[in-house]
Design a protein that fits this description.
Length: about 250
């Protein structure tokens, strides 16, 4: 058993939330019990995740996509039900958005980049004045089909790849989630491959016209990696039981 504030303080510091500009209200979003025995981890807060956490008798839920996004909400409908379920069951809710995307060790993008053993890894991808992704170089060009298989196997995700660039990849950039709007930055860097979560209609012709490969792994699936790593970290630092709960989402 651990104290809630000890866990919250550690995560807020480790993920450096005070120095991250974000639309998400990172950190504790809903206060529950002071003492924590079991923590459930998930990508996005939902009624389904909360219901499963209740069945698991969890004292805390930690997610990437939380409830509070820097704006006021009317407490009605599903939003009201989520809060009601959390309060009635005395469950703490913590959320870490961009801090978990950009972290150099356990972040979504760092974790995905680590799958490929690329070299010369550097920050990449400017979003709202801060860099949230990474780019790297392969010492020996890697076949595109191998990268596709690796992502599919690791993330348990159906991959959509627009193969308009080199078949052997020398350089790649990774920004998880809904970063298709940042594709132009990969083009400007003349990367061979750009990996993100979502895809939009305009992406196909951008990829074709600029001779670059684009991989969409799904917003949800591309952002499981940071939560997985965060669970391992918490389990190693605190005397609590942990469990990742998957609420599958192909988008």
């Amino acid at each position: 058993m651990e104290q809630r504030e000890k866990i919250v303080s550690f995560l807020n510091s480790y993920l450096d939330i005070k120095n991250t500009k974000d639309s998400s209200n990172n950190g504790l979003q809903c206060e529950g019990t002071e003492n924590v025995k079991k923590i459930v981890f998930g990508v996005s807060i939902s009624l389904s995740l909360i219901e499963k956490a209740i069945k698991e008798k969890a004292d805390m839920i930690i997610v990437h996509h939380g409830l509070l996004w820097g704006r006021s909400n009317i407490f009605k409908g599903p939003f009201k039900q989520k809060l009601k379920s959390l309060f009635e069951n005395n469950i703490n809710l913590l959320a870490y958005h961009l801090p978990l995307d950009k972290h150099i060790k356990i972040g979504n993008n760092a974790q995905i980049m680590a799958y490929f053993e690329a070299k010369q890894i550097k920050p990449f991808g400017s979003y709202d004045g801060q860099t949230i992704g990474f780019k790297g170089i392969f010492s020996k060009p890697k076949p595109l089909y191998e990268i596709i298989k690796t992502i599919s196997d690791k993330l348990h995700s159906k991959i959509l790849c627009l193969e308009f660039g080199p078949k052997k990849i020398k350089t790649l950039g990774v920004i998880s989630g809904g970063a298709q709007s940042m594709f132009n930055q990969a083009i400007d860097e003349k990367l061979d491959l750009y990996i993100t979560g979502e895809i939009s209609e305009f992406v196909q012709e951008m990829a074709r016209e600029n001779n670059i490969n684009f991989i969409s792994a799904g917003h949800y699936n591309s952002e499981k990696t940071g939560i997985w790593a965060l669970e391992k970290l918490i389990k190693s630092k605190f005397k609590v039981e942990t469990k990742f709960i998957d609420i599958p989402n192909p988008i």
